[in-house]
Structure formats: C-alpha cells, structure tokens
Design goal:
The chain has 3 helices and 6 strands; from the N terminus they run ααββαββββ.
C-alpha cells in the first residue's frame, strides 16, 4: 500500500513538471518569453479592457500585448516612447520604426483576445 502511494506521488509530480514545461514551451513559442505569470496577467488585463497594453519584456527584443479593440494603440505607444514609424519601409504587418537614428522592425499581429507586438533583432 505504501509503495502505491509513493508511485502515485511520483507520477503526480512528474505530471506537474511536464505540464509546467509544456506551458513554458508554448509561452516561449507564442510570445517569445518564458515569463508565464506576466503573460497570463497581460492577456487577462488587455482582454478585460483594464489596460491598453502590457509590456511583457522590455529589453532589446520587446514583447508587448495590446488591446485588440484599439487599432491606434500601437501608434500611441510609439508616440509616447519617442518612436517614429517609417511608412515607406512598411511591409504588411512588419513595421519599421526609428528612435535616435536606430531603425527597428516590429511585427504586429493579433487575434480576438490580444494584439502582439514583437520587436525583431
């Protein structure tokens, strides 16, 4: 009986580790970040409308989740942070922005729950 409880505990722990690993993998593939609590908060905040956008990762390769119902949120963010969009270099959903004479590429895409802005290398 004791070995059965031990086996059940080991299997439950292994299942938890597998689920957490799968969630981290999906968050990295989908959002380019493994900060799972921040991603869950960001999607909930923009889906409920309490925030216009949430910065998941703010370093060189930024990742931002934004409200899908506000098409101007991206341009408001650019203006508020000193970026200027170069319209002539735009290629579909790939926007070219410039700040301090440094050009950066931002891929903007979305769905019914959030809009995702991914800064490229």
């Amino acid at each position: 009986m004791k070995s059965r409880k031990k086996l059940t505990g080991v299997l439950a722990a292994l299942l938890c580790v597998c689920l957490i690993t799968a969630a981290l993998f999906v968050s990295y593939v989908k959002f380019n970040s493994i900060n799972l609590p921040k991603i869950v908060y960001a999607v909930a905040a923009v889906s409920s409308g309490s925030e216009d956008y949430v910065v998941i990762r703010g370093n060189y390769k930024k990742v931002i989740i934004a409200d899908p119902n506000d098409p101007d949120a991206f341009y408001k963010y650019l203006e508020a942070n000193g970026y200027k969009e170069l319209e002539e270099e735009r290629m579909g959903s790939m926007h070219t922005v410039e700040k301090d004479d440094v050009k950066e590429l931002v891929h903007v895409h979305g769905n019914a729950y959030y809009r995702l802005w991914l800064w490229q290398d």
